[in-house]
Specification:
It is a single chain. Helix content is 59%, strand content 0%. It is built from five helices and no strands. Helix 1 (3-16) runs antiparallel to helix 3 (33-62) and helix 3 (33-62) packs antiparallel against helix 4 (76-83). With 121 residues, the protein is mainly α.
Length: 121
């Protein structure tokens, strides 16, 4: 599948390299539109992994995991695909953040969709 590498290149160009940021910056200090795009990429990745896992269960139920697929390729290829992540950097940052933030992890932040209004005064 060619789309995920192209999406990652575009994301890196627009939001990381183009702004001089890292993935950690987007999830921590520069929590803005780039964060929302990164989360959309994660959702795409997650849904594709779920599709592959469901396909694997279908194969297991219909022809068995020990059989070769209809194209003569081992079913193990499907098992490997179900574990493949398109955007490992976006997955790995979660472990890094959890370890770095410790007890502060899960702190509620301001909404990026509805920034706070300036107070009149």
């Amino acid at each position: 599948m060619r789309l995920p590498p192209e999406l990652w290149r575009a994301f890196k160009h627009s939001y990381l390299d183009g702004r001089g940021l890292t993935v950690a910056d987007i999830y921590d200090a520069h929590y803005d539109h780039a964060y929302a795009v990164a989360e959309a990429l994660i959702e795409f990745d997650e849904l594709f992994q779920k599709f592959r896992a469901n396909h694997l269960y279908l194969i297991h139920r219909s022809i068995g995991l020990g059989a070769k697929s209809l194209k003569g390729r081992p079913v193990e290829i499907l098992e490997g695909g179900a574990r493949h992540r398109f955007f490992p950097e976006l997955w790995d940052i979660r472990c890094d953040m959890t370890d770095r933030w410790g007890a502060a992890y899960g702190t509620v932040r301001e909404s990026i969709s509805h920034p706070p209004r300036a107070r009149a005064g």
